């Protein structure tokens, strides 16, 4: 087989020296960020636990489609109750961690602390779940109606990354509103990683929202989107310039992303920047660049292509 | 450590009430979609099982590169036979589920049922595997030849997301043709999630296809792509407008995506929409927007940039 | 339940025939690529093992944020030492595999062999880890300062895909320089899959680099990026045409990607191609297409949109 | 079957030769046992699946003690219903396998086939579960009352191997009576492996049965044990001689193990063999050897020790 | 609690009815044992968590033999510190659960509550770990010296079930003394299940204790064993009769198991019952039955076998 | 080694102090046992890896009964070849570790080193596998014939702990003969833990060996057992006194366990000690104590019980 099995490692790194240098780097960072005095374990929400919560909630929202494959419809209420109870217990723990971390760090850095208790947040969240389900149902229907390739609502629910992103977004948005923006961000980043669709939990999105393909979509934190809107891949609803403070740091808060009214369609690669309003029923063509208001029912499209000669060269990235 | 351990949860959500509301939401959806009468377990193909099948087929196609790390070449035929047998067994089970679901739902919603049996589909699929392997070999070679950063065919096979997407696509396309479009879609969405490359299983793609970087590529269901085509990141081969029925639902079927002839190169961010033909050997420059036919050997490129002054502002999304 | 349990599979594929055809396909490929004579197991670095190494190094670099949730700060040096020792052991094994494969295949295909030993590579890599941490700290700070939605440095580190991509890139770049480009490529592709950000390990990137959203970013192998640069989603720093040899294969090596100087900002969707220089402090607007040098402090933006009438049609991809 | 010809590693076993010899050994065995003609997968109950069923039933019987640690009492009925539904589904599948195997093999070897259907067996089993729970409750109480070291009924349930063995036995016995002796045997052997207590599923045992320590206890297939019996470690309730047929094979069936009446106590190491009756209230001392009836309320004990001199030697096993 | 009404499967058990009957059985038990009023999750130490603690402590005690296989000796102190910290954290949590449960149930049932805090218990336990290691070292040495089949101390540590049982016992005994007898019992039952050796945590055992083979050994809660004692398989150090109270329940506490002085050897199958003293240096032969004191240096052996004729029958259990 | 100074938690153990004391205990042990100078990882065979090997060999020996549940008989040779190849690779690695450790430690402690190479050992082992299978087949048949409760050979193979123990023993014995006694011991201890049957790998056992129930059986290292022998639970074939050296350590080697000739039956609890011979066809009754030769065809049984009065007391262990 092989004649190897590790030879002696005389010429190997001095692990202690590497550890010391890494410790020095950590010390410098912590001095600069007021984190020197934090004995004990990390007390922050955990991405893994948040992922468990979302996975459980997917089953709670759609037990016979996204729950366990052997679940029988006769038992779905029981499954929903049990799974919800466990998921809310884990959520409560994570919410407590965020609120404590918030009190420790964010207040110290100038933001105001969040006044509500963890139990109240989790209770409100649970009470809003059936609204989330009903909203998502409108999204599934919108996709089925809008996409000629969709053969059934089941296919949409099981396969479409846009729906996966919206399940995460609608959960994350509710958590954001309830005062746990870090957990909310973790929820939305899980979808971002899986689908390439980046919807900030702070964005407001109406019913029957349709995302096609989705990769590369970015929807910023203060965007407001109406009902029956359709957005294709690589669309950006972003911010334009924003003021910075004396230290060159962005001043946080304040509306800076677009308002998209009902029934707007935005084709792939379009970019809309700043607090502009895209009027009801407008259509933005692919790859357009919009930094001003668009009147209702307007069609906006890009300058067309031009031919520049016969092919003879090749180029790559 | 911590003085906590959950305090009583008096102020906690009324789980029963939440469960009731979720049940009501499900009931409304099922009434609207003719799914009220479905006791027993979910009978639909499973994303997890489909993922297992694809993982096994990757090893079957490339045993010494994508199979188990300790497999010895002397035993690769045995590994291929065993793994194939298991994978086809699981596939047979999933195909049966899709055919039964198809008979139950799609027929009810107006599409015609699929006439072939599960065994015939799986048999045809298995018999086509060596063709899939030979096609993929041309893709690997195309990538190695086209990318100056590629140091060996092994690196291409192990690292390039374009190859991962093509393995999934070529499997999915075959399944799509054989009459199990839902399983096929699951196969392609697994690659979409992992690579950001969205190739609909219905698309037709010739040999020596090269995808570079890949993130954001969209290839629609009725696209037809010739041999030796190269496509870069964020290229869309999409549909233009299509008629809707009286209820505003897209009329399904009918060719609506581009035909891309042999030897075409399409650079990053280009968008081609509708049933247009990009003639043999044409080159579409980055970010161009094409909605009409392009003659063979034509180069199409975007209007150039313009400078608008000195930098002084900053903006972000 | 179900009356099934597999019926006999008379009409099933002839597994032996499929195995034979797959073996024939493999044989043809191996003949063409000089790989016929390779008995024994695959001797190539493994994506799974490389993923383990990177996961461990994330904890080594940021023990209290990306290490185990129950780690107490009092013990972080111990955790770092232990984890590092294990990770470097695995890395040593993978480096040996790559060097041996390199000697076998790449030399045979014309490239020069790598002269350094595995121990020396791993030692140098370990000694550079604290520099990587310090560079990453500047990236975290840059994101916190530049993004008005960022509420704390912890949120940036835990949630931002740009930071995840940079952890991978800075590790991969070091490995690339040390002579194990295949392992380096695996490290960067793991981030590409998870974030949609594709940074080639060969690229050179200065401190305080900020990636926002990130999906679709492509940075080529010979790109050089200065300090304090900001790049948004879907930006390409790619190559333009390059010469091919007599067999139509790209000639490898040679600078072919942009130089981006300090303090440049490149907005979403911009494409910069070829060995051009974007001068210090320049701003490239969203979706611009740049193939020539840009002078320092210049603002480059796209031609604006135009309105083409009232909305009445719909189109999709 | 296969043309597979792996070349041997130089200094290593000829794998093909070993495989051929093993195949020859299998062929000889199958010829001798009428199992040559069995294409397809093994169709026998699976130890792993049976273990899953028992694990689930433990939670169904004692949800707040042997179910999941985070189960809240408010939800125990839901947990019981869901878990039961899944476990019975798996049981149904295993029962079908045993019935089919029984029809194939046991009938052929002379035993009569079992006439009842799988659904009826599982239904009867489910309907008897609350009786099993009530019986087990009497066993827990008996242990608590009899053992001066037991501090609470919870400790008995969580820690005592005798209780673990009785949970398995009471389930296995019911399955044995219902006509699936192979599954029943798997259930009891799982407890035998874990506790060293070997109770044949065919044995009949009354309520308030107390097993102390338990290791080495053997209770044979036709033993009958009354109420309130106590048995200590290493007790055997076995069979004496039994007739063999012309081929020297044991003649199966027929009562051959002891009857132990109510209130009997049998101390450690006692051996009782054959169809004898230990009368009500009798006490069998440790290590006694009993092959005849014992009258009610008799005490039987061993001949006492004798001293044989001063210690000077040592011996070991 | 819930209005959930699952329709029965036709030929299947009425799950709801089974659930109701199981709930009734639980209700009866809880009424009888004062456990009706326990909403929320089970608050008892968990066998799984206790198993994790013991597994970690095995590595802490013998890092280079029972710790992770790739641990390098250079790092063993770090491994010990990290693993200990985590294990003590989990232990603290389990100790708190036991103390709370003790206060709730045992007090109610008449025993006195335990006055010490969880932190103090865990601290004392940790401080005693090196004593446990030193004691275990004497046990390993005793086995190596006493067993002619032992080829090295490493073999003893890695393979001998007696050592496994003693690691558990010495941990469990310390926990028992510190006031957490339920956790202690779980620790010892884990070894009982794995080795067939049942040592009650309450027993007192001196140094250089040697257990050979071990299966079936029982050592009772109040036994006291001196130094350099050797015990073979199936030895019982048990209790004789003890008084019961008016309800027939054993009166708990009070010494009732043997005292075994230094240098005693007890061969396989011997049974010693009651508060008798086996004097220093005595030897108890295999299978003897002892219920009275044995003077120091005495050899006790069983009455010898007798031949009863020619073999002609066969018997089995 | 490290300057690591974790501050103690207030009310908690001083982890550093505990670590120091544990290190001191290790140091003392290592000084006494010549193990101070062993940097690097543990280089000893691993119980986990050995368990994997045995699990694989079980499938190799009985593919359609102990292999994967979904294996189809058509593919069993392929499964056997692949599994064997992997298992032998792992075995080779473990054999190398044992040989190296042997050279380091055992030689130092006085035993002679083993001269054969790892490849030769593994090759011989593989070549003997079909003999092991044929021997095991005789054992299965013996159990089926001897046990009136056995309903089929499949039940014996799937459920009987005696068969499980013999699979391990026959593998372990072969490894012991080939010169890797530590790995062999690990194999047999895995069965000891699972079944309570302790057969030393050095023992010699003929064909058609039948073990019933099995718990507590001990068969010593130099025992020799003929063909068609039957042994019941709790039987000991052990050693009597043996000489010790000047330091009181057992002198190792030399025959010290019984010879049991063909066709002997030994009933439960019997103890046979020393190098005595139990002649062909003899029957040893339950619980007998034998330390002298027994002539062929003799029946040996215990003195019978006596009744000592009426029951009125209770006793427990």
From TrEMBL, chains A, B, C, D, E, F:
Acyltransferase is among the record's keywords: yes
One function term, GO molecular function aspect: acyltransferase activity
UniProt keyword annotations, A-Z: Acyltransferase, Amino-acid biosynthesis, Transferase
Transmembrane segments: none
Highest taxon, organism lineage: Bacteria
Family annotation (InterPro entries): LbH_SAT, Ser_AcTrfase_N_sf, Serine_acetyltransferase, Trimer_LpxA-like_sf
Entry coiled-coil feature ranges: none
UniProt keyword Amino-acid biosynthesis, yes or no: yes
GO annotation (BP), single: amino acid biosynthetic process
CDD domains: LbH_SAT (cd03354)
Cited NCBIfam families: EPS_EpsC (NF041874)
Name of the protein in its database record: Serine acetyltransferase
Organism this protein belongs to: Paenirhodobacter populi
Lineage: Bacteria, Pseudomonadati, Pseudomonadota, Alphaproteobacteria, Rhodobacterales
